[in-house]
Predict the 3D structure of the following.
Amino acid sequence: MSATTTTRVDMHVKILDERVVSRAKARGIDVLVYAPHFVRLPDIRARAARFSDDDLLVVPAREVFTGSWRDRKHVLAVGISDPVPDFITLDGAFAEFDRQGAATLVPHPEFLTVSLTAEDVAARRDDIDAVETYNTKALPRDNRRARDIARETGLPGFGSSYAHLRGTVGEAWTEFDRDIDSEAALVAALREGADRRVVRRTGGSHALRGAVEFAHLGYENSWGKVDRLLLSGMEPTHPNHIAYDGRFDDVSVY
């Protein structure tokens, strides 16, 4: 009888370079899901392809910011082929992911003010493929609540490092009980509810990495936000950007 094949997937990272790849491999990660903020899909795909090799598959994805800056709800899509902008309605995002046959995931539910609520997840249960039940950046109470939401809705879970900083890559992952060697195989595993377990590193160093990641929110929500809103002009993923050719005008919130 052959041994069961498993695949370790860090289901959500925001950064990608040689050091990230080296760290992922050192930690036994087989697949990275790369979904940076405010980067258009063709650029994400090109960078993912550049850093994929026989030892590490990098899968491109989009964490779409639905709603306005005052009412943000993040949704993670794996397996989209056509670009989807930020700042569109939640209904518009779900409809587009469904049209493209993507795996639709809920990252960090009820985390601060940027997430789907338990009520959102319950109402859209049939359109959601998995709920994040462990996120290194989230606080322990947030991860406990996320596990409750997954259990209450009967949805599969997933875990990720949610690394915005290189040192966090591989701190948590989802271990699937099957071989995943392509983007399509990962999408299939997610949409089919494949057997899996959520795993994380432990100890003081892991707690420290989580604290550092959480502290990084201060930069993201202060100078980083000012730079995006006031200094850098229109976001590349804004629905009014010329790249989207007006296709999302009917669901744009701006």
Observations:
- The chain has a mean pLDDT of 93.
- Helices lie at 18-26, 41-51, 90-100, 118-123, 140-153, 183-191, 204-220, 223-231.
